[in-house]
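Dear U.,

For the methods section draft, I wanted the exact inputs and outputs in one place so we can describe them consistently. I've listed the two proteins in the order they'll appear in the manuscript figures. Please don't edit the token lines directly; just add comments below if something needs changing.

First protein:
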Amino acid sequence: MRIEKTDLSDVLVLVPQPARDDRGFFTRTFDAAIFDEYLGRPGTAASFVQDSQSRSGRGVVRGMHGRAGRGEAKLVRCAHGAIHDVLVDIRPNSPTFGTKQTFVLDDDEFRHLYVPPGFLHGFQALTPTADVCYRIDRPHDPAEDLAVAYDDADLAIEWPLSVTVVSPRDANAGSWQELLTLLG
């Protein structure tokens, strides 16, 4: 597994090295020892406590979601299909505060993201079916949910496909300006 920096402070791309042959492939999607050594913080990988998976159809958008309080760190990967993944830094003291970056995650290159606490996250399914796996470092608490509308004019996220479906929660999410007020 190789680890790469991104344009967003503290966000990492984890790049597995699949072994391919006539049977298909085998890849290690995560290696705690490599991850902890890269971060220089032994035991960080062990703090992940919950795994979740979503399935979405082509054009579906999920996001933009975050967590209040101490936030949550997460590993995000697309186990099947492909997604257009979007992150926005919402850490007021970060050098990349308010900056967004997009990534394509798929089941061919197996790249996935380490997202530290303090980011909005969302994605759009690019394939007929996209399965996204999340590993988070603390149990989900709905009372700490943050959301900004996926089509917020200030964020100006360019989704590559026409948006086909969003949840009622995402359709009624607040604005970037409301989040800025909340963050103080």
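Second protein (the one for the lower panel):
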Amino acid sequence: MATIPESTTSVVVNGPDDFAVEERPVLAPGPGEVLVRVGAAGICGSDVELFAGTRPAEYVRYPVVPGHEWSGTIAALGDGVDGLAVGDPVVAQGFRNCGRCPRCREGATNLCEAGYAETGFTHPGAFSGYLTVPARLIHRLRAGADLEAAALLEPSACVVEGIRLAAPAVGARVAVVGTGTLSLVAVQILAAYSPAELVLIGDSPSGRELGREWGATRHVSNAEAAEPGWTCGADVVVEAGSRQTSARVALAAARRGGTIILEGIPGGPAEGDLTDIVLKHLTVRGIFGASAAAWEHVVTMFNAGLLDLRPLVSYKYAVHDVASALATLRERPADLRKVLLLP
């Protein structure tokens, strides 16, 4: 068994535009908890908001160690933990739900009414060498799992949450708005439904190429999708473009009576005419995180080799070099997808 160090290098955000890299103690897990040695942690747009101070106040508790997209291996077990072993490769649900409120009892654990609590925002996260999480939130990965790829299972679970709610029929016409990480995960998952057509809307050349490899049957540029009267008549549209124009494109792409899943956060007022929702009789669902069922679904896919996440990793930095990682995200190079921090 590997020796657990007394301290580990961690990123601590004290407040807006105020962070430090420092040594923090590694504490033994309490009853019902596991200590995880971090394998890799992804940087999400919401993490960037946390650093900048633009994340809504009710969804962050400063000071905090960020990192809600991660994977690792179990380093130690707290009292009362069964069914897990030191050395197991794992991921974990981020929302620390109560399991008792009406939303949790109906399965919507991501909408827990006991108050917002999430690893990396209200509890110490994975921009560190180690983190502690409740064992009940852990999902085991297959032996020898690629931990860098597995760090993308959290955003993938959010995509699965939306697609499960939309429940596209086999042979349906589906569309994805955006060519970034979430959009390309959505392409892979929707392809598993054997759609009659899978339209990918966006301009990134590398995104279009991966989209074709993973099942997209047609590509539409942003300019074409913005033309008056354009539609692709999709039964289900997954919007993950995170642009202010993305919602408008999604409304146009859907057929009358179709379903739109909003995964992306536009970062400002979203464009779109709400009249279209009424006149086209659309069902529109926003997605906030992922339920336990979505996590189980996406981990099962990953463990079965049905989800290819490795090509979405574009940059890797050591935890102590987080400033460079943030600079890369600000610069937005053409090949940018997921940026990882490694302990």
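Candidate sentences for the figure legend, describing the second protein: The chain is about 25% helix and 25% strand. The longest strand covers residues 33-43.

Thanks,
Y.
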